[in-house]
Write the structure tokens for this entry.
Amino acid sequence: MTLETELYDVLGVPSTATGDDIKKAYRKKARNLHPDKNPNDPDAIRNFQELGAAYEILNDPNTREVYDTYGMQGLAGPGGPQDGPDAGDLFAQFFGGVPGGFSFEFGGPGRPFRKRNKGEDSVIPYDVSLEDLYNGKTVKVNMEKEVECGVCKGSGAKGSAKAKKCVTCDGKGWKHVYSQVSTVRIATTRGSCNDCHGAGEILREKDRCKKCKGEKVVQEKTRQEVHVERGMRDGQRIVLAGAGDQEPGLPPGDVIFVLKTQRHESFERSGSDLLATVSITLSEAILGFDRILINHLDGRGVRVASPQGKVITSGTTIILRNEGMPTYKNPDMRGNLYIVLDVEMPGEDWMGSVDHKALAALLPPKKADIEPLPEIVDKVAFEEGTLAEVRARSFPAGSGFFDQAFPSQYGEGDENDWEDEEGDEDEDDGGPPECQPQ
């Protein structure tokens, strides 16, 4: 025997209706009750919501069985005599997935309006250098926060004056906000009342506290210490609990500093590792070097000696173990420092000051023409250019255009084989860090 029939009555079907009967009845009523067809009916949205919720429950065999056996109480939520899903989850899914945002009132009160249990948090971006994250840093920050007014004790009223109930929200502090998410679904949320700002009551101008002007809170200057610990990362949060704004009757919120790392001239960070580019001369590349390659983030000079007889080509990468970033909460453990060696070629001034024949005798021989010699050889002018000129053309040449052969260079492949250099610049998160010259 069915305990309640209210949902069936909404759809206009008996409790013995089949699943097909329920679907047909819902479709027919949904067309007639849609708010767009009833613009002058103030209850149109509510009626349409009740119809949709009733259909969602009765169309599912599990929830229908629970409803037939226990009524709406069986769908009340965890702890009730139910085998099906929580009705609150079902309503939230149907009405846009907004927790606590839908009040379903088939003979019972709706869900209570959720209020904050503390003041609002203040989120503040905080710029730090790579040196700050490497060495750690403590700074004192002057701030202003809202605290409960000491004169009116957070009431906002002068003396024994009392606030009156807000007529806009009927003292609830919130109003229903409707938004249509599809032709048959309307999301209902609860938004703070604009007239009383969520308080549910309004003070007349003459009844307001002289110090806080009825705002219930006043500004207070504070001085806070921010500790940037060694090894912290970009985007990491430093939380100062209870240092935020306070609201009457609630503990103060938190102040949250979000670290934003500034670009460094010499280093790039990749997790716990550091990357840098260092220039060496042609003689160092051929004969070796033993010198300070780079000044570290703590001011130390880092001396490196290349192996005897090792010829270094431009782009060679060396690894300096345990010279990377300290690990957060374990600063004695460090990552690695990767250094890319860029070989500087001599300038024209140097070339003009040396004996070319003597230099040619010392250097490896020049390359000969390719064999076999082509039947036709054209001599063209030598002219310097830049890769930027190539990429400025109509086709999107990538950064590796001259490094390897792509199929699309020879009429094979498709557009996806090309790399768009401009697109890479816009999407910093997806690409590897760039090394900066020292």
Summary: Residues 44-59 form the longest helix (16 residues). The first strand starts at residue 122 and ends at 128. Residues 77-113, 404-432 have pLDDT under 50 and may be disordered.
